[in-house]
Design a protein that fits this description.
0% of the residues lie in helices and 30% in strands. The protein has a domain of 66 residues. The protein starts with 27 loop residues before the first strand and ends in a 9-residue tail after the last strand.
Length: 102
C-alpha cells in the first residue's frame, strides 16, 4: 500500500457460484393441521400457501409451499421451516378457467 491511500492495493474475495436450486439451506419439518370450517366442500380447489418472507433465491426450498386440501392426508401436512424466517399463510378457493386463462 502506498501511504494513506489504497493505490496499488488489491482486494480479493472468493465467490462460489452454484446452479439455481442447489444452495443448501437447513430446514426443520413442521407439521400442521387444517380445519375446513368453510361452507365450501370443493377441497380440490381449496389452497393453502405458506410463503417464506425471507426467501433465499436459488435455495433448495421453494418460496411458496402450496397444498390443496385434497392433497393433505387427514387434513395434516408438513412444511419446510428455515430457522429465523417469517412466513405468511394464506388460504383460498380458486378454480382455473381454461377459457380465460385464470
Amino acid at each position: 500500500m502506498d501511504g494513506n491511500n489504497g493505490r496499488g492495493a488489491g482486494l480479493m474475495r472468493t465467490f462460489t457460484v452454484k446452479p439455481y436450486g442447489e444452495v443448501e439451506v437447513d430446514t426443520i419439518d413442521i407439521p400442521f393441521e387444517v380445519s375446513n370450517d368453510a361452507s365450501v366442500n370443493d377441497i380440490e380447489n381449496m389452497h393453502i400457501n405458506i410463503t417464506d418472507k425471507e426467501h433465499i433465491y436459488g435455495s433448495n426450498v421453494e418460496e411458496i409451499q402450496s397444498y390443496t386440501l385434497s392433497e393433505l392426508n387427514k387434513m395434516e401436512g408438513t412444511f419446510k421451516y428455515i430457522e429465523g424466517h417469517s412466513y405468511l399463510i394464506t388460504a383460498m378457493h380458486s378454480i382455473y378457467n381454461e377459457e380465460k386463462g385464470a
